[in-house]
């Protein structure tokens, strides 16, 4: 019953978009056809290209209005396509505008939006009015032709048809709203290549920021930690040298204490250096990705089953990304999931490597919830990888990372 009521209901924004959107759709459609028609006629003259350039800029502006209307009334956020760089000179700028895919896509959107706008207005206004006329047909006939009517089957059929069409109004409006959302996403947003470039730029900026933070932290730790340990070790060795003074003879008990202290300081310094260099290149990867993943699973506080099929040896950068991804996911399972067991699967074949980590925890994990998944997705995007999270409330949680085994 609830599902049927949901299908028969229409949000106010969808109805308003069908009504208010018609004038803008008519304006955009007439504008698009005028640009295409006049541009074709003027293509053999000097005014042809400047007219098309101005038309494409206007189409971009109308596309912005439609994008805002879709976001405000239909609740569909459409990413704004980036503006092309405008070089100096009118000819160079005109060439950039003519080759800008966003302008042509906006013009094509205006052409397709016109029939959708007319259909939406018909479904939201004309169809309900027609249904009201059909339902009230017996009344209108009696008002126009008073007196007894021998046959009432036409009246009954009219009322039944009106009620049937009235039930189809919400379905029609919802279907046309879905079509308008899809059309806006497809043509008013950035092209796939532009979106990919933007994702790579964002991922590159994230990696640069992370690497800068890493090197700054490494420099600070070396200065405040390792360097201080080495200075203390030098002082201890200097004191040991004084204990070997030939004038008074060697002080063996004091010398033994200083040597033990120097050995301890050396061990602490080596351990500190190992800790600092562990995040730069994992030593576990020296034996291969399979051994590294097996070692990660063995050290996890949650029992982890491992299934590996690495028939292709991935690029070292890809292997490093998979290793750190697995380490981050297993850490999340131990800290946040409350899982009793987990499963790690890695498969490399056909030029792609896929890592899947599954746990039986409480679920409800998602990108941007503070578990590091967003940063992990950005790092994978920098190596042309993707991260998918499937975590319904109550579990299980399945996180899949996929990236190419070879990086160009």
TrEMBL record:
Gene3D superfamilies hit by this protein: 1.20.5.1930, Histidine kinase-like ATPase, C-terminal domain
TM annotation in the entry: 12-34, 40-59, 114-136, 156-176
Pfam families per UniProt: HATPase_c, HisKA_3, Sensor
Reaction equations catalysed: ATP + protein L-histidine = ADP + protein N-phospho-L-histidine
UniProt EC number: 2.7.13.3
Domain Histidine kinase/HSP90-like ATPase: 317-407
Alphabetical keyword list: ATP-binding, Kinase, Membrane, Nucleotide-binding, Phosphoprotein, Transferase, Transmembrane, Transmembrane helix, Two-component regulatory system
PANTHER family, per the entry: NITRATE/NITRITE SENSOR PROTEIN NARX-RELATED (PTHR24421), NITRATE_NITRITE SENSOR PROTEIN NARQ (PTHR24421:SF10)
Name of the molecule in the record: histidine kinase
Originating organism: Streptomyces halstedii
Source species taxonomy: Bacteria, Bacillati, Actinomycetota, Actinomycetes, Kitasatosporales
């Amino acid at each position: 019953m609830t599902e049927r009521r949901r299908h028969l209901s229409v949000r106010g924004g969808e109805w308003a978009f069908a009504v208010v959107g018609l004038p803008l759709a008519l304006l955009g459609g007439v504008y698009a056809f005028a640009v295409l028609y006049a541009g074709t006629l003027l293509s053999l003259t000097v005014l042809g290209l400047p007219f098309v350039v101005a038309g494409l800029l206007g189409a971009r502006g109308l596309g912005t209005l439609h994008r805002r209307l879709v976001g405000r009334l239909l609740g569909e956020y459409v990413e704004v396509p980036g503006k092309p760089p405008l070089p100096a000179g009118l000819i160079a700028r005109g060439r950039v505008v003519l080759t800008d895919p966003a302008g042509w896509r906006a013009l094509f959107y205006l052409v397709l939006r016109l029939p959708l706008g007319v259909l939406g207005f018909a479904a939201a206004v004309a169809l309900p009015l027609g249904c009201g006329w059909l339902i009230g047909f017996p009344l209108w006939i009696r008002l126009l032709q008073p007196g007894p009517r021998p046959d009432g089957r036409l009246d009954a059929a009219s009322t039944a048809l009106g009620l049937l069409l009235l039930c189809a109004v919400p379905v029609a409006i919802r279907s046309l709203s879905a079509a308008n959302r899809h059309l806006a996403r497809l043509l008013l947003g950035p092209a796939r290549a532009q979106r990919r470039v933007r994702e790579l730029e964002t991922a590159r900026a994230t990696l640069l920021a992370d690497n800068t933070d890493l090197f700054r932290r490494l420099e600070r730790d070396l200065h405040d930690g390792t360097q201080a340990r080495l200075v203390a070790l030098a002082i201890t060795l200097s004191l040991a040298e004084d204990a070997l003074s030939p004038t008074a003879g060697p002080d063996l008990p004091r010398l033994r204490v200083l040597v033990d202290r120097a050995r301890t300081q050396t061990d602490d310094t080596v351990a500190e250096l190992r800790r600092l260099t562990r995040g730069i290149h994992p030593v576990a990867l020296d034996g291969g990705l399979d051994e590294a993943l097996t070692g990660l699973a063995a050290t996890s506080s949650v029992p982890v089953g491992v299934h590996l099929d690495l028939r292709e040896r991935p690029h070292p950068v890809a292997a490093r990304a998979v290793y750190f991804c697995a380490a981050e996911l297993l850490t999340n399972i131990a800290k946040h999931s409350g899982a009793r067991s987990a499963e790690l699967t890695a498969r490399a074949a056909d030029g792609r490597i896929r890592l899947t980590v599954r746990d039986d925890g409480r679920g409800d994990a998602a990108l941007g919830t503070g578990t590091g998944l967003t940063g992990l997705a950005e790092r994978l995007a920098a190596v042309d990888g993707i991260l998918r999270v499937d975590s319904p409330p109550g579990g299980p949680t399945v996180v899949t990372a996929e990236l190419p085994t070879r990086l160009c």
